[in-house]
Amino acid sequence: MKSAPDVKMSGVTYVADPVVSNKESQSNDKIFDKNGEQAMIDYYNYFVDSTQGRAAYKKLFHELLTVPKGKAVLWHCSAGKDRAGFGTALVLTALGVDKDTIYKDFLLSNKYRKQTNDAALAALKKKGASKTELKSNYYGLIVEKQYLDEAYKAANKHYGSMNGFLHKGLGLTSSDINKLRAKYLEK
């Protein structure tokens, strides 16, 4: 947030809502240096298992539920694919979207980020990155089904399902879910 702050816009309320703590990011970076694939899997588990992750996603739903009519909520992270991507999977789950569609939507990040990802890997290669470094960074640039699978596994293990995570993990009520659906779905 310090190196690439959001552009300030008139009439927009900015809400900082970090899903991952600095401590966890530093810990994950150590794993990432050795195995980028495992680091990403661990990251998605953290989204569900950590107090910080649950608090952040709970805040996202609070914003969605309380935004005034005619106003929008925009959520993002640095790359827009992991923390924001999982947040989007949660929102789609709350709206009743089927799991196959959620996965298809999630995996579209690879299509839309391809040019950016290719450029990042080319720049690393030009700087002399090893094959191991390139492979680790590759896993950090893309999304894979197994990443979202890990979050689903954690939700199933601790809450019985992703819907259970919404209710028990994030504290959403049936009334909240109905309000979200009324507010964000068209008939």
Instruction: Figure out the total of helices.
Output: 9
The largest sheet, given as strand count, sense and whether it forms a barrel, is: none
Instruction: Give helix and strand order, one letter per element, not per position.
Output: HHHHHHHHH
The stretches of 5 or more residues where confidence is low (pLDDT under 50) are: none
Which class do the helix and strand fractions yield? Answer: mainly alpha
Anisotropy-based shape: globular
Mean pLDDT: 91
Number of strands: 0
Can you give the helix content as a percent range? 55-70%
Report the C-alpha radius of gyration, rounded: 17 Å
Which features does this protein show?
mainly alpha, 0% strand, 187 residues
Secondary structure layout:
Elements: H1 22-34, H2 36-49, H3 51-66, H4 83-94, H5 99-126, H6 131-141, H7 145-159, H8 162-169, H9 174-184
Helix pairs in contact: 1-2, 2-3, 2-6, 2-7, 4-5, 5-6, 7-8
Give a brief description.
This protein is mainly α. The protein has helices at 22-34, 36-49, 51-66, 83-94, 99-126, 131-141, 145-159, 162-169, 174-184.
Tell me what you see in this structure.
The relative contact order is 0.14. Helix 2 packs across helix 3 (51-66) and helix 2 (36-49) runs parallel beside helix 7. The protein has helices at 22-34, 36-49, 51-66, 83-94, 99-126, 131-141, 145-159, 162-169, 174-184. With 187 residues, it is mainly α. The longest helix is centred in the middle third of the chain and has 28 residues, at 99-126. 68% of the residues lie in helices and 0% in strands.
